[in-house]
């Protein structure tokens, strides 16, 4: 199984350890993983700002880099959702359509494609799960509290066999952190307030770490935590799942 | 209002956030309403099926609304109701005024109607020398304070009981400092009872209009619509044309959803079906377009006309809860307001579709399954294309697009300046780094992932071992 | 009239080309639960008081014990003439402003939300259930149905000028979301559940 590793641009630049964890984890799970060096960004920051019409270049570059893989896997629900919903190419629309179906967020790839229910690991901390909106409500990685429907969570399920990990139950289980792409600067006041309130919920449950499937949300929360000089740390779920030594 | 310069949502929201305690209270109070909604919805095993059914009924209405309107008017006339048609807010206000003038009446009691807020009816009638008293308690409070409602179901949710106490002390002569909601409500009850007993014209909104029977349904908890309508000689009911539903039995679906979605109640206290006027009295129905037919023609946005005004999307919206209804500068605030408002005035309301993180919670609570967050995304695209975004943002976006489309430039830009973070729009042409105001920047690592990969990937290592 | 033509023309042009089907409602409302118990529980939750009675004599007894008979009590039910007046239905509705208690009958009640369906013929005057300080409604236990779907099946093509579902006393939470009973309509609602 040949996997194209799709690493969000800001992860590449600021959080290489998340890319490394994802790469190592997928290899441990028996995948042949390649990182196409020409990849840049899926175009989401522009599209969500209303400039989807400017993303044709990004789309073409994405297709050029990722065509030919069996699957495209990415440690970010938000970027995956963007590709799934908006990847187009007038010249090769069939190929774009096929690729939209091949792109997966990391945890859903593990549970749904690799059919792995749980992963061994070691992470002896109290952990709060930040459920990122695009992964949850967009990709349906976990059940949404608004619906009258049975609970499930693909990321949480994978954490069950991590030794020592104490997953807390938050008061507001799936409220947005306020990152929202360019929203984090254009609506700075509300964005920060939303982030502070999310952090308070985790603090009230005495967590050591906040984890999640989207580094963008975690980057926003980390920025606030650091400013508050909080001892709480953020960690991407790939890093926890990759916690067993290589 | 349009004559004044509109304060952008982000600016109004920043002001709202200056009072942290008040924001926390506003957020928690509305979250509590959302939780009541959840509990109520979870008690109905068929909840999701009900939403789906309601959505399908409304889809049918939108696709056949022309014929339903004709059917409704014919049946309403048969029932002895007078039907008026208003193309826009101005005509709506003129019709209402003409009915008042015909009866030579200078005072009106009004129950909640977001449509009359949309049309600014109160201001219009005031200019004509007509006194309007809003009888819904929340609307009454904001009217006394000369403020617009901040929420379509909970008009005074931005106020604390201390504020209401002050207002009532000033206008109704209640005891200074008495903040007991029971006492304050009782004072309003006494004052408004006198209003109900002396008004000859009562205006109400319409929750549902039934094509099959020509009747209208008005839902309240307070009983104010009924107190007004049954004591007046003339009942004027104003409705956007999208309030139509095909048959009476469809009310079974909507009345199960409406109050549960709005406040978590199983149904509103009163769900009143007005079919015929009392003997010798009059019922007038004003059917209003005011941009709705234009919205009907916008394929991506016509679903917004399915809205039954429950307010659930506001209560669940993390942005609304932390910015307050007034920051949306539109009669209908929150997520639904943000997809309705640009249709009315694109330039004035260009900021609203951006007042969202696109988290999607609104879409999930919507009882008629309007794809609210997808429409917010689509409005952004339309607003950009129509030129309603700042030039600086467009320039930044174009630069970003060029860089991101070209791996070579991207790698240079990325190495030297951590390109994406630096170019988040808003940072451009802005002295202050808006990220940094209340957040730290992420630490810059020794090497990027791709730099690590070049050295450490399986292929790289295999090469090294050759 | 020209606005009507313009609006309809624009709607016809802009509405979707294909008329979508109306959904099947028969699959809804099949929830199974104890109808009477649910009715009582829901009514209590929304501020109403259920009172189970065997006959009109018990209703009269209850009212005598709980209301001041010196105040104005009205009804549309001849069996209650001993405690309430019947001759007000043709009066000016404003004259009902001093009514303390109004006792009326409902066609049926709905368990899921405790709403009672009443129409002009049962109300005497449309304003009567709203203007009275307190309201009592009589309904036969056998006429409690599960959900709103059965309610509208029962209403069917019933002819009325005005009809309303009443669920609990009038209420508001417009001041800081604090629930206050007795906003503009009745301050309290008794539902007599008759065998």
UniProtKB/TrEMBL annotation, chain A:
One GO cellular component term: cytosol
Region forming the signal peptide: none
InterPro entries xrefs: Cys_rich_dom
UniProt feature coiled coil, ranges: none
Domain Cysteine-rich span(s) in chain numbering: 4-83, 127-221
GO molecular function ontology, one term from the record: oxidoreductase activity
Membrane-spanning ranges: none
Pfam families from the UniProt entry: CCG
Superkingdom classification of source: Bacteria
Protein name: Fe-S oxidoreductase
Source organism of this protein record: Flavobacterium aquidurense
Automatic annotation (TrEMBL), chain B:
GO terms for biological process, alphabetical: lactate metabolic process
Protein name listed in UniProt: 4Fe-4S ferredoxin
Keyword Amino-acid biosynthesis: no
Molecular-function annotations in GO: 4 iron, 4 sulfur cluster binding; metal ion binding
Superkingdom, natural source: Bacteria
4Fe-4S ferredoxin-type domain span: 297-327
InterPro entries according to UniProt: 4Fe4S_Fe-S-bd (IPR017896), 4Fe4S_Fe_S_CS (IPR017900), FTHF_cligase-like_sf (IPR024185), Helical_ferredxn (IPR009051), LUD_dom (IPR003741), LutB/LldF (IPR004452), LutB_C (IPR024569), NagB/RpiA_transferase-like (IPR037171)
Gene3D superfamilies the UniProt entry points to: Alpha-helical ferredoxin, NagB/RpiA/CoA transferase-like
Pfam families named among the record's database cross-references: Fer4_8, LUD_dom, LutB_C
Gene source species: Flavobacterium aquidurense
Keyword line: 4Fe-4S, Electron transport, Iron, Iron-sulfur, Metal-binding, Repeat, Transport
From TrEMBL, chain C:
Taxonomic lineage of the native organism: Bacteria, Pseudomonadati, Bacteroidota, Flavobacteriia, Flavobacteriales
Residue stretches making up the LUD domain: 101-194
The protein, known as: Lactate utilization protein B/C
Organism: Flavobacterium aquidurense
Domain of life: Bacteria
Entries under InterPro entries matching the protein: FTHF_cligase-like_sf, LUD_dom, NagB/RpiA_transferase-like
Matching Gene3D superfamilies: NagB/RpiA/CoA transferase-like (3.40.50.10420)
């Amino acid at each position: 199984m040949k996997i194209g590793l799709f690493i969000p641009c800001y992860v590449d630049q600021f959080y290489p350890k998340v890319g490394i964890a994802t790469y190592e984890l997928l290899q441990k799970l028996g995948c042949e993983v390649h990182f196409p060096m020409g990849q840049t960004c899926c175009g989401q920051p522009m599209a969500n700002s209303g400039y989807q019409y400017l993303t044709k270049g990004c789309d073409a570059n994405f297709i050029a880099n990722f065509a030919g893989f069996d699957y495209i896997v990415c440690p970010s629900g938000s970027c995956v959702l963007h590709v799934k919903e908006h990847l187009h190419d007038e010249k090769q629309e069939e190929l774009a359509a096929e690729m939209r179906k091949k792109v997966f967020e990391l945890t859903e790839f593990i549970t749904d494609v690799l059919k792995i229910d749980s992963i061994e690991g070691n992470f002896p901390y109290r952990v709060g799960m930040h459920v990122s909106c695009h992964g949850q409500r967009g990709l349906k990685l976990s059940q949404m509290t608004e619906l009258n429907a049975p609970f499930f969570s693909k990321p949480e399920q994978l954490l069950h066999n991590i030794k020592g990990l104490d997953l807390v139950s938050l008061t507001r289980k799936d409220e947005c952190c306020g990152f929202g792409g360019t929203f984090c600067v254009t609506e700075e006041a509300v964005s920060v307030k939303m982030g502070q309130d999310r952090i308070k919920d985790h603090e009230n449950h005495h967590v050591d770490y906040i984890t999640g499937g989207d580094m963008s949300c975690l980057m926003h929360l980390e920025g606030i935590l650091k400013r508050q000089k909080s001892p709480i740390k953020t960690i991407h779920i790939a890093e926890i799942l990759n916690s067993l030594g290589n | 209002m349009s004559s004044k310069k509109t304060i952008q949502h982000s600016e109004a929201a920043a002001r709202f956030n200056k009072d942290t305690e008040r924001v926390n209270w506003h957020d928690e109070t509305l979250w509590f309403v959302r939780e009541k909604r959840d509990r109520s919805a979870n008690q109905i095993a068929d909840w999701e099926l009900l939403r789906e059914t309601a959505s399908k009924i409304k889809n049918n209405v939108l696709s056949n609304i022309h014929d339903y309107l004709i059917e409704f008017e014919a049946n309403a006339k048969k029932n002895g109701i007078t039907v008026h048609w208003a193309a826009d807010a101005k005509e709506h206000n003129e019709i209402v005024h003409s009915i008042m003038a015909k009866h030579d009446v200078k005072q009106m009691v009004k129950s909640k109607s977001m449509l009359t807020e949309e049309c600014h009816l109160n201001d219009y009638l005031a200019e004509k020398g007509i006194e309007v008293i809003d009888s819904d308690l929340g609307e009454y409070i904001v009217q006394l304070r000369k403020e617009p409602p901040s929420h379509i179901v909970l008009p005074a949710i931005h106020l604390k009981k201390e504020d209401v106490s002050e207002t009532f002390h000033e206008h109704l002569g209640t005891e200074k400092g008495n903040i007991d909601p029971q006492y304050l409500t009782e004072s309003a009850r006494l004052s408004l009872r006198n209003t109900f007993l002396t008004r000859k014209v009562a205006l109400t909104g319409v929750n549902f209009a039934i094509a099959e029977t020509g009747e209208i349904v008005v839902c309240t908890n307070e009983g104010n619509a009924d107190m007004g309508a049954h004591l007046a000689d003339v009942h004027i009911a104003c409705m956007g044309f999208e309030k139509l539903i095909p048959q009476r039995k469809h009310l079974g679906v909507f009345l199960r959803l409406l109050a549960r979605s709005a406040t978590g109640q199983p149904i509103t206290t009163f769900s009143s079906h007005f079919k015929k006027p009392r003997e010798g009295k009059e019922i007038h129905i004003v059917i209003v377009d005011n941009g709705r037919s234009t919205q009907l023609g916008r394929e991506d946005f016509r679903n917004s006309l399915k809205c039954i005004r429950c307010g659930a999307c506001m209560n669940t919206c993390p942005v609304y809860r932390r910015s307050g209804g007034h920051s949306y500068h539109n009669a209908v605030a929150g997520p639904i307001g943000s997809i309705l408002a640009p249709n009315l005035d694109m330039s004035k309301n260009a900021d609203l579709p951006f007042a969202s993180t696109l988290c999607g919670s609104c879409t999930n609570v919507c009882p008629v399954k309007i794809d609210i967050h997808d429409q917010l995304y689509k409005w952004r695209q339309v607003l950009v294309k129509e030129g309603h975004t700042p030039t600086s943002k467009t320039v930044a976006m174009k630069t970003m697009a060029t860089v991101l489309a070209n791996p070579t430039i991207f790698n240079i830009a990325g190495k030297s300046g951590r390109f994406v973070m630096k170019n988040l729009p808003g940072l451009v042409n802005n002295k202050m780094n808006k990220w940094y105001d209340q957040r730290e920047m992420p630490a810059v690592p020794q090497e990027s992932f791709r730099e690590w990969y070049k050295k450490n990937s399986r292929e790289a290592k295999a090469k090294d071992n050759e | 009239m020209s606005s009507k033509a313009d609006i309809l023309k624009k709607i016809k042009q802009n509405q979707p080309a294909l008329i979508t089907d109306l959904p099947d409602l028969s699959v809804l409302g099949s929830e199974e639960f104890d109808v009477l118990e649910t009715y009582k529980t829901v009514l209590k939750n929304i501020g109403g008081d259920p009172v189970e009675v065997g006959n009109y004599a018990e209703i009269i007894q209850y009212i005598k014990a709980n209301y001041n008979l010196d105040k104005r009590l009205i009804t549309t039910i001849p069996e209650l003439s001993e405690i309430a007046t019947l001759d007000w239905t043709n009066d000016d509705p404003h004259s009902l402003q001093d009514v303390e208690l109004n006792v009326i009958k409902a066609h049926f009640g709905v368990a899921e939300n405790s709403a009672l369906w009443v129409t002009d013929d049962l109300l005497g005057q449309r304003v009567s259930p709203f203007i009275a300080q307190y309201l009592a409604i009589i309904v036969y236990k056998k006429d409690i149905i599960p959900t709103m779907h059965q309610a509208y099946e029962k209403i069917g093509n019933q002819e009325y000028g005005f009809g309303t579902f009443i669920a609990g006393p009038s209420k508001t939470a417009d001041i800081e979301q604090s629930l206050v009973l007795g906003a503009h309509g009745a301050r309290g609602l008794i539902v007599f559940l008759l065998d």
